[in-house]
Structures
1.
Amino acid sequence: MMELLQTPVDQRPQWAALAEHRARLDGVSLRRLFAENPGRASEFTLGVDGLLLDYSKNLIDAEVMGALVDLAYATGVHRRIEAMFEGERINTTEDRAAAHVALRAARDQRMVIDGENVVPRVHHVLDEMGAFATRIRSGAWLGYTGKAIKNVVNIGIGGSDLGPVMAAEALSAYSDPGLNVRFVSNVDGSDIVSALRGLDQSETLYVVVSKTFTTVETLTNARTARRLLVDALGNEDAVRRHFVAVSTNAKQVRHFGIETENMFGFWDWVGGRYSVESAVGLSLMIAIGPENFASMTDGFRAMDTHFREAPLAHNMPVLLALIGLWYNNFHDAQTHAILPYSTYLARFPAYLQQLDMESNGKSVDTEGRLVRVRTGPVVWGEPGTNGQHAFYQLLHQGTHLVPCDFIGFLRPVDGPDEHHDLLMANFFAQTEALAFGRSEEEVAAAGVRADLVPHRSFAGDRPTNTLLAGRLNPFVLGQLVALYEHKVFTQGVLWGINSFDQWGVELGKVLAHRIFDELSQDEPPAPGHDESTNSLVSMYRTAAARRVRPRPGGDRDGAAVR
Ligand SMILES: O=P(O)(O)OC[C@H]1O[C@](O)(CO)[C@@H](O)[C@@H]1O
């Protein structure tokens, strides 16, 4: 039987209905929507296991939400959620499951992928990680010269870095203060140099994380680390006590020189950007301990269960996805800001950048057709209140509509209460100011000089979601990450794209490989690029030929570009 092609989302009647709602609400302010519905905040607030989403300060009403939910059902979001939990091969272009939810399944749950219940395997690795983390934390694991480990250096990039680094920072208050956990990702040699500064190799454990174990940045950094370790400790045998690997590729791990007894595995059905609670989180687990790690996994699982079971109209990830689509496709918003009011969440926006932009930065749908609507937004952000003194000017008075997620906590992790009161006063003030602005009449009535009134007025109607939890802890972090994972997945389903491949990163890698030969070989292949690239390559080679190593503390040779 011939399979029916999926209807492009913009050809569905629900899309046309949304366009009509957009026209109906044009010019209707949040002030008016709040005035007309005194119960609006409670109507548009949802709590899930202590995490609250207030989405009332959005340019929506009940009809819009109804129409958005209709679109979700029409595009089969509920069926796709089930397909993910059933371990179906929803990553169609790579013909594999995308079953990161299995990583957080409870020990007695079943999750079947390709005919096998994978939960026992997942817990086997978690147990191995737990035992290893405990040996490191207790000082039972000794380095080559007999010293306990004090430094853990995670080497990985993309999903093999951003998750662990974000979570280690988010949960640093829960970390063992006796351990120094650092992260190396960039192939820029300065990254490894600065990460290793001051570390004693005899007390350092390297965790090399790479799903494929072929990523050039990671392997280059790992080789450099191994050379430094062997030089310092004087024997290749030291590698066994100071290097462990996290990968799906045992062959390449062995090829690199790490025994598979020092390898923690995961599986091809875990995407790199969806992997933080797999073995990819080993450095994090060493930092915060297996119990805190398990509590984070509980948070993931709580959100997974909600996502699977709640009706779409009351489903937090689905609501975030639908509201995002509303701005992306019906208000011409091109970006989405993530604004955590927590210094500990400083890397959360960067983490979500990969999650969202690598997943939904696609322009071809699952049927191979060009999509005709805008897909994933540009995701960016910084913690508040710092951002307020930098880019919020544009959020309040600029010409771009930037939907924002404000993320905050009722109680501080640490620090004096006064700081937290001030932090959250700013959080609430910002979402209020963005939503309701300050009209020209109000500004004039406050006695502002007439010519300054337009400059000092705020149009308002700048939409925000508020996410509020009790306190930032491992459970809440798990909830938040799972929330965004499922939001991104839902949007992919709505737009009809596959959120689980990333072919878009390949071309640059191929070209870099070739240009590397041109930059580094004595007799390089003839440059075969465009005029601009050829001349940049040649300028680099000229400078490299004259390169002088900087003296410690001295100036760099700046012959190439000055
Ligand atoms: O874990 P690996 O295989 O080293 O890949 C690192 C990252 O590189 C990417 O493949 C992109 O180049 C990401 O998707 C991935 O998270």
Note: The longest strand covers residues 204-209.
2.
Amino acid sequence: MRQSTYETGTADREKAILVSLVTDKVKRSGADPEHSLDELASLAETAGVEVVDSIMQNLEVPDKKYFVGKGKAQEIHALAEETGATTAIFDQELSGAQVRNLEETLDMKIIDRTQLILDIFAGRAKTREGILQVELAQLSYLLPRLSGQGKNLSRLGGGIGTRGPGETKLETDRRHIRDRITELKRQLDTVTATRNLHRERRRKAGVVQVALVGYTNAGKSTLLRQLTEADVLAEDKLFATLDPTSRNLILPSGKEIILTDTVGFIQNLPHDLVAAFRATLEEAGEADLLLHVVDTSSPMRERQKKVVEEVLQELGAGGTPILVVYNKIDVSSEEALSMLSGGQDTIRVSSFNDQDMLHLREAIEDRILGDVALFRIPASRGDLAALVYRVGEVIEQDTEEDLLLLTVRVNPTDMEKSGRALEPYRVVEQEA
Ligand SMILES: Nc1nc2c(ncn2[C@@H]2O[C@H](COP(=O)(O)OP(=O)(O)OP(=O)(O)O)[C@@H](O)[C@H]2O)c(=O)[nH]1
Ligand SMILES: [Mg+2]
């Protein structure tokens, strides 16, 4: 049932026309329709489809019946005849009725962005949890549209939009699908419970967890691999990673933490889809630190960064400390680099630069373990020395005439508790 069309040769690739309807709502959303269409092309490519052309239309509101205007629909039809395209992929979500009407008029398979993403997910999911989640998302997506899709999906035997539960499930009725959804949720609960148990155990053992999050293709898996020498799949494809992968990472001080890779985010990811991947992304929600990886070389980096921040908020991970990792600086323009926000919570790296990877490990260490501070305490002040021992871990101890020199890995909360008593004795060092 779960067939894949990825690895087939180019000869028999399904041909598709991309369609984007730029409504007032789309304009207001702040998304750039041109870039969104480029992204849709990458998604189609990832799903193994050959994009032969694309069409854009401006309309205040979508046409109720055909989504695009009737004239545009005819244009799509003519273009399909000319190019041999059998599929039209829409960048916006369609209703079941619109899909049915378009299928009938154009005699083409009609797919929208969400379906395409779900299709890629279906081909990528490897773990039991991932597979269950994708099927759940596909069925939840199909259910309200069921009446609109029967014909073409059952007629066409394969290709995009038919992977996973599509063909066989469509022959059954809504009731059957609802039952299956209930069953999937039950199975997911069990799987999630097991994983929570593992996670709980790790937390009890005091293991620090760091999660890589970010827009799809930002370089998360590459970073995981470069930082931990893990053998993970990194590809110039969207959604190369679907299941969370965790690896041990050894920080410069020798401390060991767990670093987790997560599924990439994308704009217009439907809310119910986010919910379906909630469990996977919960890893991110429970992390002690998030590394938000940004593809600095992308002209859409700011928008992508915003999308990720919004989804994190939705996932309830808004309060977790974040280190923004501006990645791919080796291929970023001077202009792009000059426009980046700076500051303590950001770092610029190329995944392929060893020096940068060392700096990143140090930056992670600083955030997890706190800053290193030097205190110069008069030898006579045993009370203050004792206090120093309470604000963190003393790494080095030395004396200089009648001074006690204590180098401490400061725990921010304990430091706060100590009040201002130690402030005058703290040596503020210049950054090396
Ligand atoms: N030039 C350059 N390319 C990079 C860098 N980091 C990653 N890449 C490339 O970017 C592409 C995407 O990398 P991945 O690590 O698969 O990206 P990801 O964020 O895991 O993507 P998804 O799993 O799809 O969300 C690959 O072709 C990498 O080789 C970098 O620092 N410089
Ligand atoms: Mg990845």
Note: Confidence is low (pLDDT under 50) at residues 1-9, 148-157.
3.
Amino acid sequence: MNSTNLMSVVVLISGSGSNLQAIIDGMQSGQLPIQISAVISNKADVKGLERAANASIPTHVINHKEFSSREAFDRELMATIDQHKPQLVVLAGFMRILTEEFTNHYLGRMINIHPSLLPKYQGLHTHQRAIDAGDSHHGASVHFVTAELDGGPVIVQAKVAIDDQETADTLAAKVLKFEHQIFPQTVQWFAEHRLTMEGNQALLDGKPLDKTGFQWN
Ligand SMILES: Nc1nc2c(c(=O)[nH]1)N[C@@H](CN(C=O)c1ccc(C(=O)N[C@@H](CCC(=O)O)C(=O)O)cc1)CN2
Ligand SMILES: NCC(=O)N[C@@H]1O[C@H](COP(=O)([O-])[O-])[C@@H](O)[C@H]1O
């Protein structure tokens, strides 16, 4: 915590940064007792970097293509993150699979937002996969990050109906609106010391959340 008792947060992005913006808005409104110490992107010239700059948040670009291995990229990323001494690392549309060394280093203090009702549809292209499967519902999950891709303990989920004429784009837009609610809420719970991870279990106020987490209606 810094002198004004705000939780230091570092946010990792790869693109638009609308989830980053939702967290920035919560910080600026006073709803979230946090200070975003840095935003780090693996891609240059993305809108998320503009959003950070507009909020006077320091930014870094660490291009994964400039490293000889995933491990080398992750080590540079860790060194940059740790300069800011965050209590929480937030993956907000960060599109790189992280090594076990990296995820272990931040275990219990790194969260990700994933556009599916985990454990369904880990990985990419989740909206189209849900439509192709004929699912009646889809949604988003916030989870602690572990070495298992999108397999960490789920904290909170939001569910949306899949309509008859749904496309991946329309479904993504519906889900994104709920992402912008459940992600800041998760950050707030963590900043208020209400959210913890024990073993492979997320706890809210000391009570274990079930495998689908807190259901956001
Ligand atoms: N070890 C972990 N790493 C990451 C996790 C995690 O839970 N454990 N969450 C992801 C976020 N994510 C989905 O929510 C995700 C991100 C990226 C990929 C992926 O396949 N990336 C490819 C490149 C894809 C691209 O550049 O478009 C890759 O890294 O080779 C899958 C899921 C963040 N990391
Ligand atoms: N596998 C990770 C993944 O697909 N994450 C998804 O990327 C989008 C980022 O949007 P944003 O940059 O506007 O926050 C969000 O929908 C998030 O769930």
Note: The longest strand covers residues 34-41.
